[in-house]
């Protein structure tokens, strides 16, 4: 039943708020685990350029109707019909450029809201048709609601900046995962990944004694291990005078992140403690939330925080036949803000912190001062001023991470595994004096962790 006919710019198309029942089909690949009752499409209309859709949602203030006008190319390009994507893989069979060149591909011939308002069904002049779920319309209704990588996120896994006091209050979450439950129950795996997303660090306890390859099982329970020039896994055993890395020695290891001399830095690190004698042997670990520390720099000195985003620090690794070199600022932002409210705007912008003094190379920015014998300094005035702000910001940052109130200190217990975000959490270790200390580790990419969390969110949320 046609309830309205609206004329807009260009060609007008009928739209329906009720009509012939449609089968809920062609929903490949939108990551909608089940239709929710919170979103409902009220009406829709279309011309040869735009499609206008009005919906209500429990997530919108006072459930007031919200209207959004989508570019038709966006909608046609998003079609998941068997004509547009492979039914088995959900991967596209047509390019955006092909659609853009063909006016029939982006001109709706019919637009219909299905009974109940759970789908908007669009038939296109090129013969394609697709039922767009209300969740899809809501998800893309405005840039302030477009979250990082369009992830499916649980409210309980929202990033929480922490210091020692805050982490102490959440210690059950951080250290409460049992190995057997983690390995056998997806719900426990999901809870651990949510903890990682929230705090950047989580522990698994009760790893079987003597299971020297357990690190591989723990990692592969999530996804592939990131292989580096250290191998798929690496061993830090006892004290050695000849090491490929300061982390393999027994000397004090300052707060840092790993492998910043790579362009593609591993997102997470796993460390399985096989042996770590307690009495008078040192080897105490420290962890610090780099996101909290850098956010405090912004609160104290905005100009210095800006400089920490722009001044590059050079990192290198040069041993044997390895020659790695990469430059990174102390703080990196997402290209689009991740939060929808002003209060968490800056916090949600933070993508990564980069800090690894042991592998720092000489600066190449802001290093020239005024010289009576050269005009070099004249073209570098702005760099020098920014470098001054940078060093001031770096001092504040180091004050914050070295404040004991911001540090979580622990002697890693045997038969445990810690997983932490290598782009957020700084780690350190005191010197140790026992040759039986044995830590086995590996790295994982951030994408792997996020993929598994998103899948389990669909399963459990």
From TrEMBL:
Family label: Belongs to the gamma-BBH/TMLD family.
Keyword Iron: yes
Protein name as it appears in the record: TauD/TfdA-like domain-containing protein
Species this protein is from: Zygosaccharomyces mellis
TauD/TfdA-like domain span: 178-443
GO process annotations (BP): carnitine biosynthetic process
Gene Ontology CC entries for this record: mitochondrion
Source domain of life: Eukaryota
Transmembrane segments: none
InterPro entries for this protein: AlphaKG_dependent_hydroxylases, GBBH-like_N_sf, TauD-like_sf, TauD/TfdA-like
Single GO molecular function: metal ion binding
Cofactor(s) the record lists: Fe(2+)
Keyword entries, A-Z: Dioxygenase, Iron, Metal-binding, Oxidoreductase
């Amino acid at each position: 039943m046609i309830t309205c006919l609206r004329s807009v710019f260009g060609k007008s198309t009928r739209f329906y708020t009720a009509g012939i029942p449609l089968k809920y089909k062609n929903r490949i690949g939108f990551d909608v685990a089940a239709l929710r009752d919170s979103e409902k499409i009220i009406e829709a209309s279309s011309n040869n350029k735009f499609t206008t859709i009005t919906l209500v949602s429990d997530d919108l203030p006072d459930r007031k109707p919200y209207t959004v006008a989508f570019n038709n190319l966006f909608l046609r390009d998003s079609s998941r019909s068997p004509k547009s994507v492979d039914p088995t893989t959900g991967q596209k069979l047509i390019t955006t450029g092909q659609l853009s060149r063909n006016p029939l591909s982006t001109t709706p011939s019919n637009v219909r809201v299905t009974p109940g308002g759970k789908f908007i069904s669009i038939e296109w002049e090129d013969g394609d048709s697709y039922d767009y779920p209300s969740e899809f319309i809501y998800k893309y209704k405005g840039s302030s609601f477009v979250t990082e990588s369009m992830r499916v996120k649980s409210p309980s896994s929202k990033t929480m900046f922490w210091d020692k006091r805050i982490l102490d209050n959440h210690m059950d979450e951080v250290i409460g995962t049992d190995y057997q439950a983690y390995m056998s129950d997806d719900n426990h795996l999901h809870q651990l990944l949510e903890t990682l997303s929230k705090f950047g660090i989580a522990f698994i306890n009760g790893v079987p004694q003597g299971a020297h390859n357990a690190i591989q099982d723990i990692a592969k329970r999530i996804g592939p291990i990131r292989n580096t020039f250290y191998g798929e896994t690496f061993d830090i055993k006892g004290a050695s005078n000849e090491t490929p890395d300061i982390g393999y020695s027994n000397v004090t290891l300052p707060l840092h992140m790993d492998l910043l001399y790579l362009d593609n830095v591993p997102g997470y690190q796993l460390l399985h403690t096989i042996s770590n004698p307690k009495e008078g042997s040192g080897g105490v670990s420290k962890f610090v939330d780099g996101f909290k520390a850098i956010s405090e720099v912004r609160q104290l000195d905005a100009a210095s925080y800006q400089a920490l985003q722009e001044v590059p620090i050079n990192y290198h690794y040069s041993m044997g036949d390895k020659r790695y070199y990469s430059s990174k600022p102390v703080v990196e932002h997402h290209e689009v803000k991740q939060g929808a409210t002003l209060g968490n705007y800056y916090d949600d912008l933070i993508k990564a912190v980069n800090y690894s003094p042991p592998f720092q190379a000489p600066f190449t920015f802001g290093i020239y001062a005024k010289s009576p014998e050269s005009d070099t300094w004249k073209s570098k005035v702005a760099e020098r001023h920014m470098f001054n702000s940078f060093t001031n910001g770096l001092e504040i940052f180091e004050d914050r991470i070295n404040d004991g109130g911001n540090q979580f200190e622990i002697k890693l217990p045997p038969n445990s595994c810690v997983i932490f975000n290598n782009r957020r959490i700084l780690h350190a270790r005191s010197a140790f004096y026992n040759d039986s200390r044995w830590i086995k580790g590996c790295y994982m990419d951030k994408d792997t962790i996020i993929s598994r969390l998103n899948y389990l969110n669909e399963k459990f949320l």
